[in-house]
């Protein structure tokens, strides 16, 4: 990485840039697991900005996943999503950024939301390319993936640090709390809320039931 790129990336590794980060992490502590979505949570989910919808674009998402890139099972869940979408051309799958593990999670979520805002058609490729990396994920790693996918990582960096991105992350925290989600990945599948990783077989069962 050149000197200019390092200079641009450096703020994403510093807590000072993410003044809202500590508040986001603290607010993310949510109540216990709930297995049915409430009307209030449904309203928040439907109004949630910054949702990435993959798969069928003209269909209301049947699955919404709450994501933290540093959650232990996020990568498994990302590749499960790929399998689900490959097997059902009518399925729409939404992704909501709800980072809570650490500051690196918030940094990477900012980058992801910037990619979505700037190049929505490229988001799916970015998302799976990030899942194909190893180790902890932070803003620098996410920007490296942005660059490897042929996107302008300078522009993404600038967009990632705009106030509207913080607003989206704050609303993601509120959604997680309304869903009573403690662990991510977490899923809303139809009317069901699943907190914590659900394997591919279970997700297929839930999707089939919700689609009836």
Walk me through the structure.
This protein has one domain (41-210): 3-Layer(aba) Sandwich (Glutaredoxin). It has helices spanning 3-9, 21-27, 39-47, 74-87, 103-118, 123-131, 139-148, 153-160, 163-178, 200-210; strands spanning 52-55, 63-67, 92-97, 186-189, 192-195. It has a 5-stranded mixed beta sheet, with helices on both faces. With 212 residues, it is an alpha+beta fold. The relative contact order is 0.21.
Question: Any key phrases for this structure?
Answer:
212 residues, alpha+beta, Glutaredoxin, five-stranded mixed β-sheet, 10 helices, 11% strand, globular
Give the C-alpha Rg: 16 Å
Instruction: Quickly count the domains.
Output: 1
The CATH topology: Glutaredoxin
Please report the total strand number as a whole number: 5
> Strand sequence of the main sheet, in spatial order?
1-3-2-4-5
Q: Count the helices. How many?
A: 10
Major sheet summary line: 5 strands, mixed
CATH superfamily, by name, is Glutaredoxin
Detail the poorly predicted runs: 1-34
Helix content: 40-55%
Domain DSBA-like thioredoxin: 100-200
InterPro entries: DSBA-like_thioredoxin_dom, TAT_signal, Thioredoxin-like_sf
Signal peptide: 1-34
GO molecular function: isomerase activity; oxidoreductase activity
């Amino acid at each position: 990485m050149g000197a200019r790129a390092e200079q641009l990336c450096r703020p994403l590794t510093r807590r000072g840039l993410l003044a809202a980060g500590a508040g986001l992490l603290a607010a993310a502590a949510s109540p216990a697991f709930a297995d049915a979505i409430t009307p209030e949570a449904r309203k928040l989910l439907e109004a949630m900005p910054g949702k990435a919808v993959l798969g069928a674009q003209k269909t209301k998402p049947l699955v919404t996943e709450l994501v933290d890139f540093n959650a232990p099972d996020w990568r498994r869940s990302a590749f499960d999503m790929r399998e689900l979408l490959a097997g059902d051309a009518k399925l729409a799958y939404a992704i909501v950024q709800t980072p809570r593990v650490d500051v690196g999670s918030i940094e990477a979520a900012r980058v992801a939301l910037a990619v979505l805002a700037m190049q929505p058609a490229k988001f799916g490729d970015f998302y799976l390319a990030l899942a194909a990396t190893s180790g902890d994920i932070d803003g620098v790693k996410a920007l490296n993936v942005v660059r490897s996918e042929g996107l302008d990582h300078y522009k993404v960096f600038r967009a990632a640090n705009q106030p509207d991105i913080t607003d989206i992350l704050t609303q993601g925290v509120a959604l997680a709390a309304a869903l009573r989600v403690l662990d991510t990945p977490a899923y809303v599948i139809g009317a069901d809320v699943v907190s914590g990783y659900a394997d591919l077989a279970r997700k297929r069962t839930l999707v089939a039931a919700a689609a009836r």
